[in-house]
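@channel anyone free to eyeball this complex?
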Amino acid sequence: MDPRRGPLAVPKVRRVGFFTSIEPSPETPRPNRSLSGPAEAITSSSPLSDSPSGQFISPVQIPPSRHHSDNLASRAAPVPVPGPSAFRRQLANDRTLHVGSYNPVDSLLGTSPPSSNGEVSEDSGSLFGFQRSDSAKLSASFPNGGFDMTVAVRAPGESEAKVATASTSDGRKKNVEASGESESVATKPRKEKETRSLKEKTSKAERRAIQEAQRAAKAAAKGEGSKRAGESSRPKPSKPAKQPQPKKEAPQVTSSVSEKRAVSVEKERRMDVPQTQMQYDDKSRVDKAKRRSVVEQTESKNKVELFLHLPQYERGNQLPNLSSNIFTLDTIHHAVYKVGLQHLAGDIAGDNARCIAMLHAFQEAINDYTTPPMKDLTMDLTAKINGYVSFLIECRPLSMSMGNAIRFLKNQIRKLPVDLSEPEAKASLCSEIGRFIDEKILLADKVIVQHAVTKIRDGEVLLTYGFSCVVEMILLYAHEIGRKFRVVIVDSRPNLEGQKLLRRLVTRGLDCTYTHINAVSYIMGEVTRVFLGASSIFSNGTLYSKVGTACVAMVANAFSVPVIVCCEAYKFHERVLLDSICSNELGDPDAIANVPLRNNKKHSKTMDNNKNLQFLNLMYDSTPAEYISMIVTDYGMIPPTSIPVIVREYRREDLLL
Amino acid sequence: MDFQVVILAGGFSSNLQPLVSKEVPKALLPVANRPVLSYVLDLLESSNLKDLIVVVEGEDAALKVGGWISSACVDRLHVEVAAVAENVGTAGALRAIAHHLTAKDILIVSGDIVSDVSPGAVAATHRRHDASVTAMLCAEPVSGPSESGVAGGKDKTKKPACYDIIGLDSSKQFLLHIATAAEIKKDTRIKKSILCAAGKMEIRSDLMDSHIYAFKRSVLQKVLDQKPTFRSLKQDVLPYLVRTQLRSEVFPDEKTVEDNGKNNMQNNEVVLSQILSNASLPSFHQVYESGLNSRKTYKCCVYIADESKYCVRLNSIQAFMDVNRDVIGDANHLSGYTFSSHHNIVHPSAELGSKTTVGPHCMLGEGSQVGDKCSVKRSVIGRHCRIGSNVKVVNSVVMDHATIGDGCSIQGSVICSNAQLQERVALRDCQVEAGYVVYAGGEHKGETFARK
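replying in thread with the prediction:
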């Protein structure tokens, strides 16, 4: 398997652990469903059990509560899986593992229909005891609420669930079960042989070939199944008679279509694999990157050992270097260049602002873009955007949210209809970017504010750390609607972002206390709630945020103060983060070496030359999910364990729609 | 990068009489035997700026400059030479070519700059702050021959005290006040509103406005349209912009237009801009703007060049001497020549007599002849000059085709092209106009030889 896909496998496992009641059977024809939208899934859900590889009704499609009473009751025993490794072993023993279709990437991108959403948000509701009654706004994000975004996704899910249960509850149920069992008995030996042989020669191409064949077969079966669904009242013919039919049909009827689709899905999959972060201790790669780079950077002399895999450059000469070759960088659009400069100079801080600035720049760049003759807009524009992105990365490593936004944009470019004229394509891209900003950031912020305000009661003392624009909006809105509360702003050197927040809150008349993080253990005693912003949240619920956040969250946890993280869903990331080392950013070491308003230039000069001294200015840290009580996001208030659900269920719409 | 470059090459500057003449406009004055304009063009070319507009005052000068440009760099650069009427000033010149300006931002470079500060840095600063105007400041150059005590005292008195008074904010990024030395007799006025908004102002007199500006085109054109009396960029336009940065009259109409957008859309826009502005440390402009809603402000930024960089304007005779000296001396990376082991450049075709010494930091042009027992120190001698025997040339510039008789002594002087010095002339701190003949045996000090 492609090593790059390694990390992706983990979230999947993690997801399994969370949904103990849902059996993510590996045979679930995911690739197939990733082709068909939810609407198609409706028709396919019940007949799937007839298809050769889908002996079991996909548990993801049917609400788990019903599973136990239904045909899956017999399979319920091995289902509650404690952990990833156990899960894998069990699958191996169970010998239902179908190597061809067990592709974690599939499952990640596969369109598992959103039927499980209901459970997730309800779970979270029950976990945290939402007082739904006290806020009409709160209910907005729940299934029947008035939010377009959620409703749009919701509707097919619900109807599908209904259809699925209806079809299983009708007379066919027994039939299905019986035939499924008989078939599983019949096909087991054959399958085992197949898997064994697969294991022996697990070349990628072969596996893919098999996968495609299966997909084609499934597609055929589905088509057949939908036919049959119409005449569902009739008793089913016996399985063995039916079974060979799809296999024969497959190549004739759907192969061309499904192959084409398969290729495009493959492509999507490849694109969607998050770029592996460059490891800066990998000599050859760094050299390669250097040759490509536009910004001249010198590596710092005193590198911090543990963080060699992160870029550590000498600060101070980047900006002059970059600014002096403003005119030689012909390939970079000036708007992008400006954003890069601002990132490098630290003029823009804060994930939302950086992301918005970048998207605006891309909008401008796309507006000014003309396809060169003899070139394809999709290809060329993607290459252009790639160039811009690598330029921006050189200026400052991208945040997770920016990565997500870029993925969205690239998907949009890829999805452009071929017959669109250039101006139309550009206009559509720009409007898509605008929509992304409006919906994923601005509207999301509004929703988050509406949710989070319900958590602020009169007389509370709220603590926030650093500066987060969402938290600021929440505080200002709560103040606006007349809640009486006090704010404690905890800040830290060297950026002192909290001062900006403080200034604005005080001018609006909020009651504020300002302190540095050193005093957090004292101040936490009087705090009743902690609101934190986020740079990203990973699928294991780990919060990735400004350095110091973990400390605040842990102290809050020790004082039993609820920690509420406010984060737009577009910042979620499917990766799993266990520590702050693997993925982080190093700031300017001088920033912590020098104290402002003190003339210690001489002092730091001598320190610079000291080989035994290394400055570590980490920008981010990771807060384990245990310390987070709740995450307020645009899909409602959820526990950190529900992040993968959001990533899985909702991320698709950006990527695939 | 959406920048247009305008080089203001001037015409026949009165400051530089008698060095400039009908044949030699200011832009073509030789600095180390290359026209001064070539330094600017090289600088811009090194920044990959190849589409240039050169504005020259006067048709004759324009023809001359255009002729030189087409002969020198037609293959490398795309240069458009525009002639404007004489004595319209820099602002007037820009007004005259306003219809050529189309880009979003305009980089204005004076044609008489010898510098190695990248103009890209100015442009980048301009872009980064989204400023209306960005000026480049550099450290005041050391004027006069630095170590020769002979002429030192004399030069100091001669140099016009042209300090600019420059007010910067605490981050040294914004320009709060600028007053040119010409205006300041005794006192200077500082705007209270700006001082209040910025909180702190740092007043510097050791910085020099180097006449490289980046302007937002819309702002520049509005100012030029609204203030037809403005003549000079430096003395009128820039101070005006700096003065009014908090109460702009340049954009009186923009605020009102914004109000009729869709409510929802506008709301989003407001939130958006708020997020963006909250993300950065608010400059005092934003703070001020938020205090008074109706006001529209804009930013005047500065780029302060590193002290190690070289930047001198050739705007006086003294500066001309300094530049010539520095380009073959301290700042010799600018000249583009390779220096010999003696730190001088002697063209292979130059002929030196016996016992003639050419010291370090000297330049001897192509085909020049120097007689016996001569001594050349810290001087630039042009092409095809004929210098007799027993001549001393110190700290001087001798332009092409000059003839210097035997026994002359030249110190701190400029001999223009085709000038003729007869025998035993002793010149000190003199300027000799092109084609002028100084008769034998004269001893002159601090004089200007020009035909009336």
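from a first look: Chain A touches chain B through 35 residues (CB under 8 Å).
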